[in-house]
Design goal:
The complex is a heterodimer of chains A (223) and B (504).
Chain A: E1 2-6, H1 10-22, E2 26-30, H2 33-42, E3 47-51, E4 53-54, E5 57-58, H3 59-68, E6 75-79, H4 84-93, E7 97-100, H5 105-119, E8 126-129, E9 132-135, E10 140-143, E11 146-148, H6 152-164, H7 171-178, H8 187-201, E12 206-209, E13 213-216, H9 219-222
Parallel strand pairs in A: 1-2, 1-3, 3-6, 6-7
Antiparallel strand pairs in A: 4-5, 8-9, 9-10, 10-11, 12-13
Chain B: H1 2-21, H2 23-34, H3 37-47, H4 51-100, E1 101-103, E2 110-112, E3 128-133, E4 138-141, E5 158-165, E6 171-180, E7 187-195, H5 197-248, H6 260-305, H7 310-336, H8 339-342, E8 345-347, H9 348-366, E9 369-374, E10 379-381, H10 384-401, E11 405-413, E12 416-423, H11 430-437, H12 450-464, E13 467-472, E14 478-485, H13 495-498
Parallel strand pairs in B: 9-11
Antiparallel strand pairs in B: 1-2, 3-4, 3-7, 5-6, 6-7, 8-10, 11-12, 12-14, 13-14
Helix pairs in contact in B: 1-2, 4-5, 6-7, 9-10, 10-12
Classes of the chains: A alpha/beta (223), B alpha+beta (504).
């Protein structure tokens, strides 16, 4: 899951980014609305964490601009203002959820995962594709009830495919959502990681469609 | 009780000691005690009497003193002038009598050669008499005197007027003249008397008329004064009604279209009201700024602490939670301050429109059906921010827990407004409901924050004297039912701090 963090307080941005990265999220950080606007329009993120008190204007201004331009990615607003008059402005601007400072990383993580899951159309917190399950709250993966250990990168890759399933995910989309823009991988790296995942879950579960991309297959439903 | 008794004894002991050592002092206090209690009680009552009553009492006193004085004066003057005109009549009758007196040239006897022409002098004891005498042996009397005589005081020359007693013990007014006639050696006393009964009767009739007219005048005067007071004090009454309206929140400022004396007062009061509002605003802003300034560093500390081992993290988190709770609590208090005292009647629908719009948008993004049914006429005396807080927290909870539906209604009920929020989520058990209302207790470990939201709602209910009920919704989940009074009974700001300490 790739998330853009827009927070002008350097200490908070650093601490939060570190905590979220530890939980397996791919975090990109910026401190201004201007830069956030540019990134949102050029990169692909699964969600944005937006602080409202930015040096170059109120966060809601940028947010409503994105919504007007049909940029529909989930936005979690981060603010010190907890009065409802302020919150209402945030929701009106198009925020999907609200976290009031001071918060716990766990809460931000929980809200983010719920937002991303919902944006892919999954109402339930546990996504099941056949015997393969992903608990979006904890980020843990299991096959037929047996927990599977994955590296952070593998976990992000599988999580994205599961969220997207049964849609076909192109290599470019995977690169955008699963890898940091500063460390874009060779096509090789993706192939290697896909084949590792296949070794852990069975070859047939990840289908390669030539020229289109990858797709998770519900083996149990087809059987 | 026991305490009071011993105190009483103490003071007695002290006063007796005082008597022994300082006689002067105790005498003074005895004198003071001797002043009748009813005087001071009435004095107190008059001091605090309403202005209208004070003016009325003052004019009543004036009328009671002045009108009898005027009556006495008028009556005295009338009696004087009536007596003078009576005397004039007596004198002219006497002159007529004198003109008829002749001395008989032969016998040196007095004769009356013509009658006075008044029948009253011929009717016996009629009260009108005349008498001509020479001091020793009497010469002539009117027939009305019969065998009686008028008492003539010792020699008086010239004209004199006396009050004398007549033959029938009636009061007479007598005019008498002593004169010498040619050819007659003795001084002749010619006296003419008339009964004062007629005069007294006339004066009494005048006095009766005077009393009736003065009483009527007094009543009319008092009525007029009362009307004048009503009219004169009307601006004051208008101002106090105005002030009540400010208190009720119907208007923001006092009307200054008033007589000049009151206008200045109203302007000054408006100034005070304005300053109060500004102070509250400034307090709110300061509390808000401080809170917001604190929140980001607390967030940083909280995030950083998560990297520490549990044993170290626990105390840090406890302290951070205390800071956070204090900040939130005082921010909420600062926001609520003046909320009741200065909030006017607001349309609930207008006040919560931004919140409802924002949350409707959120519901749409989350794919939850959100039905809002808001009575546009529902209104209550509540700070717009507070009603936003209330609605926002309850609706956000509902949206968070709902599976697919949230319904929201605002309606007018007797003496208030009812808000009902329902969802089709998992609902709450009774125990959960109770703990949800406790400050900061969260419903589950996922950190939904709903506990604090409901605690804020509960605080607002206390402030405005409303009620919050949590129950099972028709939709299947939780229903929050809020009743708000249209007008809160009293401002309960600063609650415990301003309460008097319990008596011991």
């Amino acid at each position: 899951m790739k998330v853009l963090l827009v927070e002008d307080d350097a200490a908070l941005a650093e601490a939060l980014a570190a905590a979220l990265a530890e939980a397996g999220l791919l975090i990109e950080s910026t401190t201004t609305g201007q830069e956030a606007d540019f990134l949102v329009r050029t990169e692909r993120y699964d969600a944005v964490i937006l602080d409202l008190g930015l040096p170059d204007g109120d966060g809601t201004r940028w947010l409503s601009q994105w919504r007007e331009d049909a940029i529909d990615l989930p936005v979690l607003v981060l603010t010190a203002r907890e009065r409802w008059s302020d919150k209402a402005a945030g929701f009106s601007a198009g925020a999907d959820d609200y976290v009031v400072k001071p918060f716990e990383t766990a809460e931000v993580l929980f809200r983010l995962r719920a937002l991303v899951r919902r944006s892919h159309g999954h109402a339930h917190p546990v996504i099941r594709i056949g015997k393969l399950t992903l608990d979006t709250h904890s980020g843990s993966v299991s096959l037929a009830g047996r927990p599977i250990t994955l590296t952070a990168q593998e976990s992000r890759l599988l999580s994205y495919l599961m969220h997207a399933s049964p849609r076909i995910v192109s290599r470019a989309e995977l690169v955008e959502h699963v890898y940091n823009r500063d460390h874009e991988p060779d096509s090789n790296v993706i192939d290697v990681q896909i084949s590792r995942l296949r070794r852990k879950f069975g070859r047939a579960r990840i289908e390669t469609l030539r020229g289109q991309g990858y797709r998770l297959v519900d083996l149990e439903a087809e059987a | 009780m026991k305490n009071q008794n011993s105190k009483g004894q103490d003071s007695k002991a002290q006063s007796s000691k005082g008597q022994n050592s300082k006689g002067q002092d105790s005498k003074g206090s005895v004198l003071k005690r001797w002043r009748p209690r009813w005087i001071s009680r009435w004095g107190e009552r008059l001091r605090l009497a309403p202005l209208g009553a004070r003016l009325l009492v003052a004019s009543l006193l004036l009328v009671i003193v002045l009108l009898p004085l005027a009556g006495v004066g008028l009556s005295y003057t009338f009696r004087q002038s009536a007596t003078a005109s009576f005397d004039t009549r007596l004198e002219s009758l006497l002159n007529a009598l004198l003109a008829g007196i002749q001395v008989d040239s032969i016998g040196q006897r007095l004769q009356l050669n013509r009658s006075l022409g008044d029948a009253r002098f011929d009717r016996v004891y009629s009260g009108w008499y005349w008498q001509v005498s020479n001091g020793s042996d009497l010469t002539l009397t009117s027939r009305s005197l019969w065998d009686q005589r008028l008492p003539i005081p010792e020699h008086q020359s010239g004209l004199a007027v006396y009050e004398v007693e007549g033959p029938r013990d009636d009061d007479l007014r007598m005019i008498e003249r002593g004169l010498r006639l040619p050819g007659h050696q003795d001084v002749i006393h010619v006296a003419l008397a008339g009964s004062t009964a007629e005069l007294n009767h006339e004066v009494e009739r005048f006095e009766r008329l005077l009393i009736v007219s003065l009483a009527t005048f007094g009543v009319l005067l008092l009525a007029g004064l009362a009307l004048q007071m009503r009219w004169g004090l009307a601006p004051l009454r208008r101002m106090s009604a105005n002030l009540r309206a400010v208190e009720e929140g119907d208007i923001e400022r006092l009307d200054t279209q008033l007589p000049v004396e009151l206008k200045e007062l109203a302007l000054a009061m408006n100034g005070v009201l304005e300053r109060d509002r500004r102070l509250i605003e400034r307090g709110r802003a300061a509390a808000g700024n401080l809170a917001h300034a604190l929140k980001t560093p607390v967030s940083v500390l909280k995030t950083l602490s998560e990297r520490f081992p549990e044993a170290q993290r626990q105390p840090i988190n406890t302290e951070l939670a205390r800071i956070d709770d204090a900040v939130r609590h005082h921010l909420a208090r600062a926001s609520a301050a003046g909320g009741v005292a200065f909030s006017g009647r607001v349309s609930i629908g207008d006040a919560i429109a931004p919140v409802v719009q924002g949350l409707a948008r959120l519901a749409e993004r989350r794919g939850i059906r959100f039905d809002a049914d808001i009575d546009p006429n529902a209104a209550a005396r509540i700070d717009p921010q507070d009603i936003q807080e209330l609605t926002g927290n309850l609706l956000e909870n509902a949206l968070r827990w709902a599976d697919s539906r949230v319904s929201f209604s605002v309606s007018r009920v007797s003496q208030g407004v009812r808000l009902r929020i329902e969802d089709d989520g998992p609902g709450m058990t009774r125990a959960q409901g109770e703990s949800a209302l406790a400050r900061g207790v969260r419903l589950d470990a996922r950190g939904s924050g709903s506990g604090l939201g409901l605690a804020i709602v509960e605080d607002l209910m206390m402030l405005y004297g409303g009620t919050l009920r949590l129950e099972r919704a028709a939709l299947g989940g939780l229903a929050a039912d809020v009743w708000l009074p249209a007008s809160p009974v009293s401002a309960r700001i600063g609650d415990t701090a301003s309460q008097p300490p319990p008596a011991d």
